[in-house]
Every structure is written in C-alpha cells, then in structure tokens.
Amino acid sequence: MLFNSYPYIPFIVLSVLFYVVLEKKFPAARRPFLLLLSYFFYAWWRTDFLVLLVGSTAVNYLIGSALTARREQQRSTRAPLVLGLTFNLGLLCFFKYAAMLVGTFDLLAGSHLPIPAIFLPLAISFFTFEQISYLADAASGMAPRYTPLDYALFVAYFPHLIAGPIIRHNDLIPQFHAERDNEARASDIATGSTLFTIGLAKKTLIADNLAPYSDIVFSAAAHGAVGTSDAWLGALFFVFQVYFDFSAYSDMALGSSLLFGIRLPLNFNSPYKAASIVEFWRRWHVTLQKFIFDYLYTPMAIMLARKSIALDLGRWSGFLFSGALPLLFVFMLIGLWHGAGWNFAVFGLMHGFYITINEAWRLWRKKKKSAPSPITHAAAVALTFFAVVISDVVFRAGTLPAVLSIYTGMLGLNHAANLITFSYLAVAALVTLALLTWAAPNSMEITWRMRPALEPAANAIPVRDIGRCAWVPSRQSAVLFGLVCIAALLALSNLSPFIYFQF
Amino acid sequence: MGAKTYLIWFLATVTGAVIAIAGFNAWADRYILTHPAGPSFQTVSGFERVLKPAWLDSIKPDAVFIGTSDIRQGFDPVLINRTYNVHAFNYGFSSVTAYETRRMVQDAAAQPQVRNIFVSANSFAGGSIAQPTTGGFDELRLSVTPDGTPTPRRPLWLFTTRYLSGGATGMHATGLYMLARLKRNETAKDRPDIFSAYSHMTKASFARDMERRAGRSYSLSDWQREQLRGALDAVCSKPIHLYLFFPPEHFAVVDRYFANDAEGLINFKLAVLADVRAHNQTCRGKASLFDFMTLDNITGEKPDSSGVYPDYIDLVHFTPRIGTVLTGIMLGTSGLASDADLTGDPFAESRIGQMIQEDKVWRSEKR
User: Fold this and answer.
1) DSSP A85-149
2) Is B130 close to A222, i.e. CB distance below 8 A?
3) Tally of structural domains, chain B
4) pLDDT tens-digit profile of B160-216?
5) Cα distance from B216 to chain A (closest Cα, Å)?
6) Would residue B7 count as lying in a domain?
7) What residue numbers bound the domain in which B257 lies?
8) Least CB-CB distance to B10: which of A219, A224, A481?
C-alpha cells in the first residue's frame, strides 16, 4: 500500500482509532495488532511475497537466537553469522542483482545465458539490511533476546517497512512496550497528523507535478539528443523531484509512526543546504549512511589504517589506502543499494569520489578552523548542489547514451529542439522550488518542539531551532493544515509511487 | 491550545471538506449522467482523462468513440443515440497519443456490452516512444495498465478518482455549470456559446488556424504502428467490430500536409490499411477502415454568406452533425456509401493514391 493513496487514508485512520482503544483497554494486544496491520499493509501490494517477508524474518530470528545463545555460552559466533549473512545477501542478490550479474557476465564473456526475469519484492533492501544489523549486533553481544513477536514486528512495522528509515532493533523494539498517557497520545497524534500532511502535500502537490517534466526530458535523452534548456530543466526538475519525493516519504513515515507513539530516526534534514558533500550525506538518507558507515566503512577503514601504519605509507598514500579506497568501495555499494544497474554503481562512485576530494581538501587545509563567510558558504552550498545535479543525471538517465545526451545538452553541444519551453512559468517554478528548499524551514524544524523523531546521534547535523516559526497547535494552524491536507488529497488521483520504493 | 483541541479542529476540517467534496461530486455526477443533455458534456475538454474511464464503467455503452479532440468534439452521444438507436459513449481525449489510444481501445474492448468501437486513425499518429503520454504523465494509469489490462483494484481507483479527485471535482463543476445554463428543452446544439463543439469556424479563425497548423504533417513510426496493431489485437477474439477512419479534416489543412510531407501522409494511410487487412485475415472480431480525409462536399466546405463554415469548428475539428453522418456511413445505415469500407476494396490503394489528384484539384480551385 502506498502512503500517498486513497486506501491508505481509511487504513491509517481506522488503525489508529483501534490502536487507541487497545492502548486503553488491552495494552498487551497492541503488538499483535500492529504486526497484523503491517502484514496486511505489505500483502495489499502482493500477497505471495508476504511469505518471503515472514520466511526471512523466521530464519533471521532463529539465527539471531543461535548467535545470542552462543555468545552467552562464550562460543564462537562466526559460523551462524556467516550463515546469516550468506542467507540475507544471497536473498538480496537473487531477487535484486541476479539479472544484472547475468547480463554483465553475458556482455563480458560473450555468452548467451538467459537473463532471469525475477520480480523484485518490495522493501527487500530495507528489511534485509535491518536484519543484517540485528545479526551483527547479536554476534557482538549487543542484541538482547527478543520474543518472536517483537522481532517480527521490528522487521515488518509498516511505517518504516517499505522505504525506511533504516532503524536498529534496540531503537524500535523498546518503544513497542512503552505506554503513554492521554496528553502524550493527543500530542503524538496531532504532531503525526501534521507531519503526515506536510509529507502528503510535498508528494502530491510538488514532487508529482515535477515528474512529468523530468520524465519527458530523460525519456527523450534515452532516444536521442536533447536541447540545452531541456537538459538543464530536466536535470533540475528531477533533482527537486527526488528531494521532495524522498522528504515527503520520510515525513509520512515518521508521521504515520508517531500516530502509534513510536518515533523513527531522523532520515532527511534539508540535504541541499549542505555546504559540502560530506555534510550532504549527513543530511540525505541519514540512516542508510549511518548503517553503512557503522557496519562496513568504519571496520574497514580501521583495518586499512592499521595496515597503512604498519606499512608506513605516509600521509597522502595512507589517506588513499585507508580513506579513499574504503570510501569509494562503500559508496559504490550505496549506489548499488539504490538499484541493480551499473548507472547506480557509477552514481555511488561519483559520490565516493566527491567525498574523497572533500576529505583530501579537509586534510590539506586542516589548520583553518574559522567559520566561512556567508559568500563562501553560499558558494560551497552551490558547488555541492551542482555536484549533486551532475551525479543525479547518472542516477536518473540509466544508460550511457542517455547520460551523454544530457551532459552534452547541458554543455550546449546538441542541436535539438526543446521539449520544455524555458518560459516565465518554468523560471517561477524553479524560483519557488529554490525558496522552499533553501529559505523555508523543513518539516523537522517546523515540528521539532514536539519531538517527532528519535534524537539524532551526537555527530549528526542537529535540527535547527526556528523559534517563533515553529508549529504549535492552534485553531488557525489546525484549519490551515486541514485545508492543506484536503488539497493534497484532491491531487491523489495523480498517484505515482515514491522513487525510493524501487529500492 | 491543547493537542486534543487541535486534533478536533484538524479532523473536523478534513472530514467536513471530504464529505462536502465527495457529496458534491456524487450529486453532480448523477446530475450530469441523468440530464437529457448530459451525454453532450462528453464533448467538453478538461480533466476528461480522470472522469471518462469511470463513466465508461457506469454508462455501459454498446458503441464507443475513441480518439483525439476531433472525436471528442465531433461525436455527440445525444445525436448518435437518437439517430441510430445505440447507447454511445464518447471516449475522446485532447491531444491523445498512440499509446493512450491503444489502451483506451483495450479498455473499451474489456467492457462486456461493447459491440462497436470507432477510432480515428490519426490518434495513432500522436506521441512517440520517447514521449508516450501527453505532457509526460499517464492519467489513465489508475484504470488501465501499460499493457492495456484493467488495473488491479480498478473499481476502488475509479471510485476514489471520481468522487475525491481535484480533476473530477473540476469536471463536475464545469458540467454542472454548463448544463444548468441550458433552458428547458434546450440541447447542446442550441447553445454553441456554452458547448464549443457546436460553434463554427469563421474566415478569421480559418486564417489563424492555417497559420497555427502550418508545420503539421502525418506519418506513422514503427512504435505508433505497434500501438495500432495492439489496438486491433484487443478486439481479435471479441464480438466487437472496430471501425477505424481517417477523419474529415478540412481540405485546406490536408493540402498543408501534402505540402509538408505528401509521401508521409499516403504511407500513413497505406500502413493502416495493411494492418487492418492483416488483422481481418486472422481475427473473429473484424475491423473496417474508412477514409473521410478526401476531397468532398464536407472537407471542401466553403464559408456561407455570413463568412461561417457550418460544419467545422476549426480546420481539424468537425461538428457533431458531421460526426453523426460519418457514424451512419460506418454502420452502413445511411445508404450513402456501401463501398466506403476500404478493407474489402481491391482498389483501395489506388483510391488512397487519388489524394494526389484531389489535392491538385483543390489547389487549382483555390487559384
């Protein structure tokens, strides 16, 4: 079920009403109820893949329990951990990457192996990663024993199931048992509704209206040359589309969860306001970046740093060996996580390359600590945004000819008729989008007083306090958000899936 | 203010508005569908892509007219139902593409009561593989999948779109306003000021339109031809007759097509003919092809004494009177042209080729 669909509205309203009754009368029934809701939510899409979700949950629970037991008995956890990782990564490879791998093999070896037509199960990347984190924690003694119900609910809890945020078991499961009084419940539901409304409006009123324009250009690029203004407008509209699309999804996920009193982690914090690519990734899909860095980059970088010291590689060689190498590797994986295509790998490598340059710059200028001037800061934000636009072309265009068509179009090298008129309307749209992106407070800043998400980690970008602009419940704001909600609902027939649903 | 009070106000606003909008849409929808002139509203432009799939389901027509704006404006079900005793539905959209046309035919063919489908062949000349839908957004996606099958949970999508979408609300409001302005016993035909399908081209609008369509031509790409074949396939095993036709655009603009790409236009017609004939050799559900894009009394219309062209709204849009005449020819009930169907005519290719002579005649007469 999509958050931005008509069926979801009665689904969530009735679920919350029923949940509130259970909270008051039968608190023990809340978790089974949430689990049933979550399975219903997933099965609405395709019932047969519910078997995969339940099966994957069961296998990981059993392996996790074995890991915990071995850990308690002080026995080696290596074998069950390898088994668990093999199972999860094998599942992911089979469903998500088999066609890509066979296709690439055919291309390189000149063979004609049939490319398997495997349907990609919704959310497989998300529930696989979350379960890998659970197994890794269980192996290192950081995961307590959970009941099967708690664990199944952690995996399937519907507000985060489809497209994140990626959440760790110890952040979520304790919240299933927490109780709230009437005042907290009303506050949660009020804040959750408001956040959901903001997300729905961003999706249906902004992102979905940008999609046709970027679709036209990228579709044309896949079949030939595109003109200069088309290339720029298409790329910019896509960059804003994916921004509003993903932030909308994050708001709706956090808002939906808050209705049940459960806070998900902050996942999106105005990434285009970032003044460096490093900062960008601390604001964009925060939980994915954190997951990859916690479980992959950091252990790898530490291991390589030790080697580099042992080999006495020196400052810059050491940086390349223990900094750049793992960065490029993990960002290529981040790229591939987004989709089974080499364009995604290139997209990830581009970001890895950007970050490497960013880190090298920091290393080179390590003496300077003073805050940059507003002009320097604005230039840094613009440069970061430009780098994102360039990489997003690869992300969206898909094939090399299409990417080249857009790039050459941007450089004014194509002599093709434009599909989108660079009109006053287009300029007005871009100015409005820019104001919303860089000048307006984001949804987290608007609702932060009500704590709609888990507290960000100590090293994360904090949510800015916007003082009097922050949302406070009032009659006027209730009517205002009610009307925004109606406007967004009226646009729901333009139903289109979130971009991040394909991952 | 407490969160509880906020919630009450928020929910009251949303619930109140939803009830008001859904109530309005339900009432307006019923009003339009039961109004004697209601079917004439199907000739009106707006968010017709939102509403018409739902209406196709509930009107349950036996004859469906599919195509671009010339179909939308040129076939008024009120006239057609009265004249031929059928239950017609106008499934025409503005600026339709080949991809949309194919899916509309598939959608109509999936309706069990449909027996006749009329499609303008020029609808297959719209769109491209790079831009399959108008404006890049597929507004039919909630009713028909890309391969033309009904979407899963189609009744739910059609219901919510019909009663809760902004597009449907706008269309219902427009329909209500237009129909409410008709006086007792008035029909759409009596009010060209309200129903533009019944307005007429003037010398001034003729000149403007000639300028606007100066660069236009016809051709059929491989992709567009695939869509045409897909549409023909949709009726292959069904008890449905598919009537394809080249619409009677005014010959002044056809002359422009000749000037721009004569070969493209002739090849376009020949390709459609070949595909229809190939279809008829293998399929139970037959197809006919009619060429109304020839020089005759309709397409060669001259302005009357007041400078008005009675049968045209502009150069490519003909009036519903003409649409009704064409329907009679295609159904074979008019008695005017029993040999009009090109598919059974061994000289069809040369008849199509005669356009070149017709164009010469047109040019010499103009001179």
Assistant:
1) HHHHHHHHIIIIIHHHHHHHHHHHH---PPPP--PPPTTHHHHHHHHHHHHHHHHTT-S----HH
2) yes
3) 1
4) 889 988 889 999 999 999 999 999 889 999 999 999 999 999 989 998 988 888 888
5) 16
6) no
7) 61-145+187-366
8) A481
